[in-house]
Amino acid sequence: MGPQKHIKLSELNAKISDALTDRFKGQTFWVVADITNHSYKADKKIHYFELVEKGATSNSIVAKIIGKAWGAGSMHLSDFEKNTGQSFTNNINVLVLVSVDYHPLFGLSLNVLDIDTNFTLGILEQQRNATLKRLVDENDFIEKKQEQYITFNNQLQLRAVIQRVAVLSGSNSAGHEDFRHTLEHNDFGYVFQIDDYPTIVQGDNNAKLFLSKLIDIYKSGILYDAVVITRGGGAQSDFLIFDNYNIGRAVAKFPIPIITGIGHQKNVSITDLMAHTHTKTPTKAAEFIIAHNRSFEQSILLLQKNIVIKSQQLFLLNYQNLSGLKSTISNSARELISAHKDALGAINQNTINSSKTILYHKHRQLVNISHQIAGRPRIILYNRINDIENTISNLKTFTNQYLRNQGTYLGHYRASIRMISPENILKKGYAIIRVNGKITSNADTIDIGDTIDVVFSDTILKTTVREKTKYNGRETHL
Known about the structure:
5-stranded parallel sheet, 5-stranded mixed β-barrel, flat, alpha/beta, CATH 2.40.50.140, Rossmann fold
């Protein structure tokens, strides 16, 4: 083969560059694609990534191209993250404005010039709305009335006082520390018992771990007054776990009131909608609990105040009535005395004495009524404390009885196992046959002339098979 005309690779690349420049010069395109292999050079403020398109019915990639964003494009991506709360990172679907670029050394790529914020927000909102619709359609304990979601959980009645709380939160979470600090250092001196159930509270792929912790709370058997879910702030994508269908369903059905303090300010998650009460931050969740307890205390104080006021009013009214009666009697007595001075002298003295006696007895009755009314709240609280102590005693009795029953079952199983152990079987006159060091119960594996071991409870006989005879097994039939 003779010499052929050739060109350098750089020359070919230059021709390709010229052709693409001529074809796409000044043109831009809005492209829908997924982001993969993303990296960010903070010192240069440049994003590197791949734009991919997946098949309509599968996750197989049907198109892929290298992309980058710098300068104004990088600034638009920063604005996108601020406006949506969604990081520009892998596995998000975006609508971006791009131009075509070809470099002789780095090849074909797309420059991202702008990004449509509303497109991404729309996708996230569509997914969220689809999950909410599925929750309502598939579960009879979730109902939508106008813009409100009625669930089994948010229809539960909060106890008058919240004291024992289970907290689902990330380990060493600043939000959890804020929640605990707010509860433990409240201005009213309320004391709380806080049980921590640490888990991972971000990333939709951690939903199973989150659910297992929620189940642990239910299986603990502890009579919690409330369950609190807390999380500090973060990117919008960090909160996707709280829009998970299974978590939303579990929260809606949970038999203990759930209070959420998830630190996202921009919107409300599905978990918030399904829960009994949602607040914006862990601190707000703690403040809600304190305010709830304070409301109960104020209602008791107000009741006490009203009782005292009503008692005073009742006493004053009767006292005024008695004073008026006394005045009437006195005036009448004077008139009678004037008319019958001599005859009514004794009656006048009796009337005065009787009036004093009546006033004294009425006063004593009113004082007794006042004491009885004032002491009624203490009797109610005493009865409630007795009820709680009885409940605790019953739980301890049931637990001890259950442990004793289980111990009896274990003893029975232990005795049964001992009875069928090889040691006891050998002591009853049975033997173990071993061929070539292996235990066998099949005579077909043993031939005449083979050497076998016969193992008794305390002796091993090594013997040679001289004869094989079929055995009908009648002697061992029971």
